[in-house]
Amino acid sequence: MKVKELIRQLELFAPLNLAETWDNVGLLIEPLSDGKVTKVLTTIDLTEPVLEEALTKKCDFILSYHPPIFHSFKRLVQKNAKDRIVMKCITNNISVYSPHTCWDSVENGVNDWIASCFNCSSKIPITPNSTLLNAGMGRIITLSNPMPLNNVCDVLKSHLGIKHLRVGHADCDCWVKRHSSTSQPYEIIKTIGICAGSGGSLLKNVDTDLYITGEMSHHEVLAVVAEGRSVLLSEHTHTERGFLSSAAKLLQSRVDGGVEFLVSESDQNPIETI
Question: Which of 15, 24, 38, 265 could, after both became Cys, cross-link 67 (CB 3.0–4.6 A)?
Fold first, then answer.
């Protein structure tokens, strides 16, 4: 499959107009020649170990969720890791494409993947997209059956494949005030706001019992719990990395053979909990 046809398939799944205005998505490194793509390596971050893996596995296309090129370059120098990655991709005729917030927004994308571990009676985007049905940033879900927060934690950890979560517990008095009309018991979760990655700004003022995201600042968490809401933080990329296997299968089904989608084994969270 030619690079242009592969890109067409990627954008049929997640159109570029779904991206946030600040984002840098699409084809970031174009090959010197539009040759045939035989292997695609999917990754959350394009690091030097991931690039070495791509070279070892003879991948000619890297699908990097986070854009490895974000800010403008004034020079390309060997002392900078991102510069070395760009130069090495060009030297080896490897294409690099980033879907980032397109995948966050699209139906059956990253945020829907997070929500899929819960039995929901409803699911809507936090900020609906004006052009594509069921697309938009973040998700608000209503559980079919309310769950204690500890049970939500267990379900989420299993789905994300992690052992630990950081938990911000709702202020008890503020929880009672929020639920004064229903007397919903403390930290029995009925509604959840979800945002892959960093959710502090998107989730602000979203009226749910619980927020699930990768990271928030100290002061953002203080504000959330003072509103009578709880928050679960998994670390940024733990909300995203598990989606890669689903994405690889989905994209494999969209191409007519000849292209193999691989999930990087070198890609990993740069932060370890010990």
Answer: 24
Which residues 6+ apart lie within 8 Å of 180 measured at CB?
A: none
Closest CA to 229 of 117, 149, 121, 120: 149
Specify the 3-state DSSP secondary structure of 50: helix
Amino acid (1-letter code) at residue 97: Y
Token look-up 């950890």 returns 157
Alpha carbons 159 and 172: distance in angstroms, whole number = 28
What span, in angstroms and rounded, lies between the C-alpha atoms of 102 and 92?
A: 27
- List pLDDT tens digits, range 191-205: 999 999 999 999 999
Q: What is the pTM of this model?
A: 0.95
Structure tokens at 235: 């670390």
- The DSSP secondary structure of 224-252, one letter per residue, reads HHHTT-EEEE--GGGGTTTHHHHHHHHHH
How do strand 136-137 and strand 61-64 relate by DSSP bridges? unpaired
Phi and psi torsions of 116, nearest 5°: -65, -15
